[in-house]
Amino acid sequence: MVRSFAALILVLGITGQCAFAQEASITEWKKDREEAFDSPKKAIVKEKEAADPALPRWSFGLNGGYAYRLFRAGRVVSHDEQEYLKDLKSGIAFGGDMAYFPWKHVGFGIRYEMYKGNAGMDSTQSEKVTIQHLSGAVIHRSFLKNGKTAILTSLLLGYQPYENKSAVKGQPFTFTGKTMNWGVSVGIEQPISPRFALNLTGTAMMGAIYRLRRKTEFNTETLHLSKDDSVDLSRFSLTIGFRFL
Questions:
Q1: In this structure, is the dihedral angle defined by the CA atoms of residues 168, 171, 172 and 178, taken in order, positive or negative?
Q2: Could you tell me which residues are beta bridge partners of residue 94?
Q3: What percent of the chain has pLDDT over 70?
């Protein structure tokens, strides 16, 4: 009887040790698993916080550069006419813009740009062209791997006034018109301080005028143009500028 009781106690002790060992094993398993599952979450949170730095919502910029008009010329006969058209198509563009980014990658803005070009052929003919555009913009902003350099892609839609002060054999004319315009631009922006950045932007603008006002020294009249005779204001510009963030 005593031997049986001692054997029972021995069996219960061994069973308890096994249960304790099993419970400890389960506890360790849970601990290891919890640490294994918790650590990636902490790492992800830290990585996310590092990938989302505070970005300025508002920005204002000024820029200027080269512009080239894309209209098709008629029949060109002489070398002087070729040089005249070359000068007339080439010009300068300058302006400014303001942007607001309610989200990291999408924003809205306002852009103003002025194009100026002129050409002359001997003393018989000359033209001084001014094209302005004021447009709203929808902007997409993406970042390179360094997290600082931004690529800005904009869709533009707005208003475009046109003026051409010309003279033919000493007779002055002024042509004016206005039309809607649309365009796209792609630029790269590099911050050089928390509040200042440099940018390089290429812009393509589209638009045509079908009604002009022609003013002379004696009268003013309205010209209604066909599709073939319309004034094509399409142009491309490449500008460099700076931006306040």
A1: negative
A2: 64, 114
A3: 78
State the CB neighbour count (10 A cutoff) for residue 47. Answer: 10
pLDDT per residue as tens digits for the range 177-232: 999 999 999 999 999 998 999 999 999 999 999 999 999 988 999 999 998 889 99
> Is a pLDDT exceeding 60 seen at residue 21?
no
- Using alpha carbons, list the distances in angstroms from residue 204 to 4, 51, 121, 187, 239: 100, 33, 28, 12, 12
| Residues in Cβ contact with 13 at an 8 Å cutoff, skipping those fewer than 6 apart | none
Closest CA to 214 of 170, 159, 172, 168: 172
Left, alpha or beta for 60 (phi > 0: left; psi -120 to 50: alpha)? beta
Are 188 and 197 contacting, i.e. CB atoms less than 8 angstroms apart? no
Q: Which residues pair with 125 in a beta bridge?
A: 121, 168
pLDDT at 187: 97
Three-state secondary structure call for residue 93: strand
pLDDT category, 20, cuts 50, 70, 90?
very low
Q: What tokens does 65 get?
A: 């550069």
Gyration radius of the chain's alpha carbons: 35
CB burial of residue 39 (10 Å; 0-12, 13-18, 19+): exposed
CA distance 210 to 195: 44
Dmax over CA atoms of the chain, in Å, equals: 138
Residue 53 has which token pair?
A: 């730095």
Please tell me which residue, 75 or 16, carries the higher pLDDT value: 75
